[in-house]
Amino acid sequence: MSVVTTERFEVPPAAVPARRTPSFTAESMPPALGRSHLTSVWAELVVEEGSVQFTDEASRNVNVTAGQRTPIPPDIHHHIKPAQDAVFHIQFYR
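Above: the chain sequence. Below: its structure as tokens.
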């Protein structure tokens, strides 16, 4: 699985997976994921099928496709927009 990232945003090597959401589709995702929100810990958007548009206040706007993941830094507002064929989940770290 490849990572869509920049130098500035990488899950720290010492981070340990803590929990993950169930797999969501465009229809089943919680509405809050489509609005600006933030997390207090590192996370990753993991796309299993289709594609998901990820946008954050640090001017990142990336299209994450099946088999890819992108880091979500703590304390940065972001939102997502999944394509109709998307299946994805969020992995949280501690």
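The chain has a mean pLDDT of 94.
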